[in-house]
Structures are given as C-alpha cells and as structure tokens.
Amino acid sequence: MVEKCTTCGNTGRFICLVCGGSGEKDCIECDDSGKINCIDCNGTGLKTEGEKCTMCDGTGKEQCLVCFGTGKVKCLKCTGSGIIRCLNCES
C-alpha cells in the first residue's frame, strides 16, 4: 500500500498558501488602491504657482506603475497560477 502524501494527498499539487489560490497578492507600492501620489505635484494636486497639476489633473494621484492601477500583483510563490507542485511526493 502506498502511503498518502500529507501535503497534497497524492494529487501532486496543492493550493498556494501565500495567495490562497488566487494567483495574486495586494500591491504594497500603492496599498492595493491602484493609485500613488503624483510625482509631479507630490500628491497636492497643485503646482508651485498654485495652478492645477497637469500630470494628475489636480487629483494628486496617478496610476501605480507596479500594478498598473489594478491594486494586485502576481504571486511570486506560485508565479500567478495559484497552485504549487508538491515536492514531498513528486506525484
């Protein structure tokens, strides 16, 4: 009788514990909001002359360049698949 793998139950794979199987993690650059402070006006929405910042249209925010505005990034542990290959049993 073959012993059952306690990690994957002999399926050869299991759900990634880092991302919970979603394949994504929250972006730490923008705290999963998808927006960061505008680099042109430092988040104030205004230029030094008191005029509205043209880079962010006066909002003080712009799209995060790490997650491209989604607020999520690919999980590095499972490379975005949500599944990990079991190395304990190599089934």
List the SSEs and their pairings:
Blueprint: E1 13-15, E2 24-26, E3 35-37, E4 61-63, E5 72-74, E6 83-85
Antiparallel strand pairs: 1-6, 2-5, 3-4
Could you write a compact summary of the structure shown?
The two termini are 15 Å apart. It contains no helices and six strands.
Q: What class, by secondary structure content?
A: mainly beta
Q: Based on DSSP secondary structure assignment, what is the total number of beta strands?
A: 6
- What's the helix-strand series? EEEEEE
How many structural units, i.e. domains? 2
Quaternary: single chain
Distance between the termini: 15 Å
Rg on CA atoms, Å: 21 Å
- In one word, what is the shape? rod-shaped
Described by strand count, sense and barrel closure, the largest sheet is: 2 strands, antiparallel
What is the average of the pLDDT values?
92
Measured as a percent range, the helix fraction is under 10%
**Regions with pLDDT < 50 over 5+ consecutive residues?**
none
Per DSSP, the total helix count is: 0
Q: Identify the strand order in the major beta sheet.
A: 1-6
Portion of residues in beta strands equals 15-25%
